[in-house]
UniProtKB/TrEMBL annotation:
Disulfide bonds: 9-26, 28-37
Protein name: EGF-like domain-containing protein
Residue stretches making up the EGF-like domain: 1-38, 40-80
Superkingdom to which the source organism belongs: Eukaryota
Organism: Pocillopora meandrina
A Pfam entry, by short name: EGF_3
Length: 204
């Protein structure tokens, strides 16, 4: 005889056959507690939630929601830094595409850069040039420029090619980067260039 057929348990509870002299027991569904399973469990205060460490836990009746904090994007269970709020800046005036160095000098290179989001600011300019830059500019031998269209805000994160000029060849070497339009400025997910004497250029 199945004692659970009479549905003896309150709402928010599951009936399990056996376990007691009555022939059944009532177990609260996840999110509820108390004898009659009417008390909401606050998973946020108890730490019993799967929200990302960069998300806010919002308690709801019988459950909870996760919302990524400002500066982060995702579903709340996984939140990643939004580059528009988390970036390093490149400000060196000598990084500008108009800055020329003597031919056959070495200049500097960007192989010290760690992979991450960067924004051009101040004397370095506000963005990467989208037309080729002659070699021995940007305080380097092989300057890097953006070979492609600048994205719109609606495009989100896009892949773009950075070309490095070497002599008459304006795209002797190239690498793929990610960039994003943040409304009033661009950010670039840069990686260290393929060798020394390669450098990312800035312009206004």
């Amino acid at each position: 005889k199945n004692a659970c057929k009479k549905k003896p348990c309150p709402r928010n509870a599951i009936c399990q056959v056996g376990f007691s002299s009555e022939g059944y027991r009532c177990v609260c569904v996840p999110g509820y507690t108390s004898e009659d399973c009417t008390e909401d469990v606050d998973e946020c205060n108890l730490g019993e939630n799967k929200c990302d460490s960069n998300a806010e836990c919002i308690n709801t009746r019988g459950s909870y929601d996760c919302k990524c904090k400002e500066g982060f994007t995702g579903d709340g269970l996984t939140c990643t830094a939004n580059g528009c709020y988390n970036y390093s800046t490149l400000r060196d005036a000598k990084r500008k595409s108009t800055y020329e160095i003597p031919r056959y000098s070495e200049g500097v290179c960007d192989n010290w850069l760690s992979e991450g989001w960067y924004r051009f600011e101040g004397a370095a300019g506000t963005k990467m040039p989208t037309t080729s830059v002659d070699d021995y500019h940007c305080n380097t031998v092989f300057p890097g420029w953006l070979n492609g269209a600048e994205p719109t805000v609606g495009d989100g994160e896009v892949f773009r090619t950075v070309c490095f000029t070497r002599g008459a060849d304006t795209c002797k070497h190239s690498i793929t980067i990610v960039m994003k339009n943040c409304g009033s400025y661009f950010i670039y997910k840069l990686v260290p260039p393929p060798a020394c004497n390669y450098r990312y250029c800035g312009t206004d």
